[in-house]
Amino acid sequence: MSEDMMSGYSIAERPMVELGPLLERLLAGDFICAVSDDTAFRRLQDEATRERLDAYLRPLNRRLASNEEGSVYFLAWRHLDEGARDQLSRQLAETVGSLLPMLEWLQLVQEALGRDGPVSPGGVLKPADFSSRCEDNQGLRERLERLATDPFFGSQSEQLDAQIKQVFKRLRERGYLSQPHADRQYFVATAKIDYLIELVRFIRDEEQLPVDDQAPEAQERLL
Amino acid sequence: MSASDADILDNRLLGTGAERLALLGKHAEALMAGYVRDEVPLENLSTTALNRLLSARILWRPDEQAGVKLSPKVRELIAEMLADETRRHVNADVAETLELMRGLVQSYREARDGAEYWRQEQQLLHLRQAVDDLDGRFADAIDSLWRRLNSDFGFVSRLADKIRENDRAQKQIVRLLDGLALIDFDELIDLVGADGALRKLLVSQLQHRLSQHYTSLREVQRRLIELMARFRQQQSRSRLVAGMAAFLREHPGFVPGNYARRSEVPALVNRAAPLTAAGAVALDHAPDARVVTELLHDLPRPTAAPEPVVAAVAVERQEDSMVTARQQALREDVERFYLSVVEGDGASQSALEYLEAGELEWGEEIWLFQVLAEFQGLPRREQAAFRLRQHESRAAAFNDVRLIHDVSLQLAPARQGSA
What we know:
The structure holds two protein chains of two kinds. Chain A is mainly alpha-helical. Chain A has helices at 3-6, 14-18, 20-27, 38-44, 47-57, 82-112, 127-136, 138-148, 160-173, 192-206, 217-222, and strands at 32-33, 62-66, 72-77, 124-125, 177-178, 187-189. Chain A has two domains: 11-77, Arc Repressor Mutant, subunit A; 91-209, Arc Repressor Mutant, subunit A (Orthogonal Bundle). Chain A has eleven helices and six strands. In chain A, the strands form two sheets. A three-stranded antiparallel sheet of chain A has the order 1-3-2, with helices on both faces. In chain A, strand 2 and strand 3 form a beta hairpin. Chain B is mainly alpha-helical. Chain B folds into three domains: 19-82; 84-249; 325-411. In chain B, helix 5 runs antiparallel to helix 6 (117-150). Chain B is elongated. The N and C termini of chain B lie far apart (140 Å). At the A-B interface, strand 3, helix 6 and helix 10 of A face helix 7 and helix 9 of B.
């Protein structure tokens, strides 16, 4: 921020003014992580900064929150009134509705790119890699087609490249991917994926779903 | 043993050693084939060559029926030379070397006390070699560990294998650290006594090297544990994603509890609604007026291109007579519905009920659409004579699209003489 712009503020106000753009992003509902905004994320790791932000957010009935791993920050309601609960219910229903397409996408990426696990924060994804893998493999092609035309991704096209483009665009809009250069077709996974995985695990535990994430013990013991 | 006897022995060792090392080069391809496969192929080896390789213990034959294999040490040598991490062997046996060193020190002291300088020199050389061996063994092991770590265990492809390899590497480190712990420098200090050469070799030099190895091992251990955590996390995520996706596919109607209605809302679910910090031009702050004026001047001028009138052509529509007839019939039916309302007793009448009662053939949607269109088509004065009510609801809890289920029409009672 330039000296000129800062001159209108008292010394006490300045630290808060510096946080203005970050506050605005948080208020707009963005998830801040080391990938989506490294500088902002490092600031948020400082406890004093977090306290200042929280004090500012108090009259707006919001507070700073993070996932369990601490890899991503977002805003939560401070007090849950009826309106907030309504909004949270709607949001939860929406997230649950998007769960299957998101999980299928994570699986597809893992299989198409031959990775050991689902893409993790910082992982680089290129639409071009995808289209070449899908062109060679009819099975992947069909799964991508089904996924792209899912209402969550909402592709109307029959062209593979357009479908992939739409999928990446949606994921960027939802904050799961960040595109460092608007004119270059490569994307980096954000820590919002951590958040999603934690939510999936939470739902699994709460609803006691028969979904196991540990390697079978018997198999380990045989070795 | 005299010095000349020893020289003869040395010379014989040198000769045989060089000869046998040369065998490695001479039969390199056959030996490498034996390294890659289970057995050494014998097609290109003469009986003499095979016998030489066997007596040099480069090859061995487990039993008469079995094929010829590389001896373990040669296999290790090749693995070491190739940094082949799948087969590289980590030797953590320190106790044996320590035992050897103790014996050599004893022998060295005896030679010194007996003033046998040549034997003393020899023992010192052996001791130095033993120390170098020990040092080299740790260095090799650490090199092998780093290579495996830095390649993310790339020599195995599956995650489960990587986890097992990592586990194996961690166990090796534990054994190496245990081995290091066996070396007791107090004991070594006692052992070397006041001898400067021994002290330098076994205390200062060895201690310096081993402390470096210790640091490296701790570091590589820490990194392996980190990597293991990442592997495990990946594995668990991968299983979670696959398992949950499979579950949701099998149970399309699955709805989790509404966590937002709980008295304690889980932290993960609590995400505040987005807020936009809006701002607008304000003129109550005199110094800003200049900026606002500039902004106004900078606004792009609306480019109103004149419409090329000549290009406009009257639209010709050739309507299908069938369609026209159907539309006409629909319009007439709707008009009859309006008339029935006018003639009725002033009660509200549902459009759909009229449709059903009259056993008309129109689709409900088309019918309602035409009833609404007819109303909108009336002159304003006539519109005021009717009261039209739309029975509507939101499309879904989160979708604000209004769906009209029915329309009811009623004569407006209050106005006089308008119909």
